[in-house]
Amino acid sequence: MPTKIMKWIAIAALLLALFWHPFAESRILLQFAVLAGAVAVLVQAVRAGKYVWIGLFVAVACIFNPIRPFAFSANLFLVLDAITLVLFMVSLGRLAMKPRLSIASITDRTPGSESL
């Protein structure tokens, strides 16, 4: 559930940046939101063993890194923003975590079982 929330926060930040061109101060907040979402999806992809998704979101984390940001032109930033937005939207459906099955206990008594 927290991963899905982080994805939606990143999607909202990317949509906001796509339709409202951010200035320098808000671009740092956008980068932190996208980086946090990318790390959450990256952890989810590692657990699922989806290596293509791992590579894609490592690239997203590098591009939207707020510590050492890349300088992009406004047009290139909008294209990267749109591509990243699509990646997050697709990851909502493709990287859904399957529930873990519990392991039956060997000491649990099953009613109606016969002893050996």
Characterise this structure:
By secondary structure, the chain is mainly α. It has one domain. The protein has helices at 2-19, 24-48, 51-63, 74-94. The longest helix has 25 residues, at 24-48. The radius of gyration is 20 Å and the shape is elongated.
Main beta-sheet annotation = none
Q: Which class best fits the helix and strand makeup?
A: mainly alpha
Q: In what range is the share of β-strand residues? A: under 5%
Helix content: 55-70%
Characterize the overall form: elongated
The helix/strand order is: HHHH
- C-alpha termini separation: 44 Å
What's the total count of β strands?
Answer: 0
Number of domains: 1
Count of helix runs: 4
Rg, alpha carbons: 20 Å
Unreliable residue runs: none
Whole-number mean pLDDT: 80
Sequence-ordered SSE layout with sheet pairings:
Elements: H1 2-19, H2 24-48, H3 51-63, H4 74-94
Helix pairs in contact: 1-2, 1-4, 2-3
